[in-house]
Write a structure and sequence with these properties.
It is a single chain. This protein has 316 residues and is mainly alpha-helical. The protein has 2 domains: 48-230, Lysozyme (Orthogonal Bundle), CATH 1.10.530; 245-315, no CATH class. Helices cover 52% and strands 12% of the residues. It contains 13 helices and 5 strands. It has helices at residues 2-29, 32-39, 61-73, 76-99, 107-114, 134-139, 154-172, 175-184, 186-196, 208-225, 259-266, 270-276, 303-307; strands at residues 48-49, 52-53, 245-258, 284-295, 309-315. The protein has a 3-stranded antiparallel beta sheet. Strands 1-2 form a two-stranded antiparallel sheet. Strand 1 and strand 2 form a beta hairpin. Helix 3 packs across helix 10 (208-225), helix 7 crosses helix 8 and helix 8 packs across helix 9 (186-196).
Length: 316
């Protein structure tokens, strides 16, 4: 009898607390304080993005932008991770953009595309931090085969994406149209311009995703660069720091080399090897020349690694 009684008490408590958790989660989403905060998010009177002025007084542009601001602020976990990862990666992207003489605002493409994650993949088949489709990636020199996918390589995909954005900006003469073409494809944007007899992004009827895409990038910039205006105070926040890595070029001579043996010889776990080198997509690699990342000044590098390492070792 006591056991039966205990069972029913335990069941009651489980249901009670389960109900309480779901109720609290539902209640928080409908919290008037939270909604009031979203209702008062500011839209600046003037916005410059990629050195171009946003036409806030044109048709419904301001309302479309406001929707993206509310949408971002209404996703607190995603937005929190934006701030954490941006501190780690934005500096490197800025350096690449500067080398191509492109506006720093283009870095928000990677933010809205993948949340700055190398392993991001879409249902349409795009992959990596810049969400390259396989054909587009290949046209910019990104290799994809059963063993590696350079779309997932942070540095290689970033350089390819910036070349791609540079080409689109030169082709269309406008950063807004360049971003639309990055998302929807050059052909679709050009066809829309011709058929609709329009020459600006904001007057074009494009796929809903593309129409939102450009304004989401603008909204991301507003929030990331003016967090206090949106009730975000990143001072003393726990942000991710940029890391230094060693890039080691290796020539593998065996028919196949297991990734497990590479990881062990590099002194890192099997899991962390893939975290450092997400472009490696197989548990074995055929003979060839590869570049891998290692933690800076990793102490455990044995003779096997030294014997198979070429002269090109870079510190980043």
């Amino acid at each position: 009898m006591k056991k039966e009684y205990f069972f029913y008490v335990l069941l009651f408590l489980t249901l009670f607390f389960s109900y309480g958790v779901s109720y609290s989660a539902e209640e928080s989403l409908a919290n008037p304080v939270y909604i009031n905060r979203l209702l008062r998010l500011p839209v600046p009177e003037q916005i410059i993005f990629c050195n171009e002025q946003l036409p806030l007084d044109f048709e419904d542009v301001k309302e479309r932008l406001d929707y993206e601001i509310v949408n971002i602020m209404g996703s607190p976990v995603t937005t929190t991770m934006w701030f954490k990862r941006a501190n780690k990666y934005f500096g490197e992207i800025d350096n690449y953009l500067t080398s191509f003489n492109l506006p720093a605002d283009f870095k928000y493409v990677a933010l809205i595309e993948s949340n700055l994650r190398c392993d991001a993949k879409s249902s349409a088949g795009a992959g990596g931090p810049w969400q390259f489709m396989e054909a587009t990636g290949k046209s910019y020199g990104l290799c994809k085969n059963p063993y590696v996918d350079e779309r997932l390589h942070w540095d290689e995909s970033t350089k390819a994406a910036i070349r791609h954005l540079s080409d689109l900006k030169n082709d269309f003469g406008s950063c807004f149209l360049a971003l639309a073409a990055y998302n929807a494809g050059s052909g679709r944007v050009r066809n829309a311009m011709r058929e609709q007899q329009e020459n600006t992004f904001f007057a074009l009827r494009l796929p809903r995703e593309t129409e939102r895409y450009v304004l989401r990038a603008v909204a991301a910039k507003l929030i990331m660069e003016n967090p206090q205006k949106y009730g975000i105070f990143p001072e003393n926040a726990s942000l991710y720091s940029p890391e230094k890595f060693e890039e080691i070029t290796m020539v593998l001579t065996d028919k196949f080399t297991s990734v497990l043996s590479l990881a062990k010889n590099m002194g890192v776990s099997y899991r962390y090897f893939f975290e450092l080198n997400p472009h490696v997509t197989s548990d074995k690699l055929p003979a060839g020349k590869y570049t891998f990342k290692l933690p800076y000044k990793k102490s455990k590098i044995n003779n096997y690694l030294q014997d198979n390492t070429s002269d090109s070792t870079n510190i980043r």
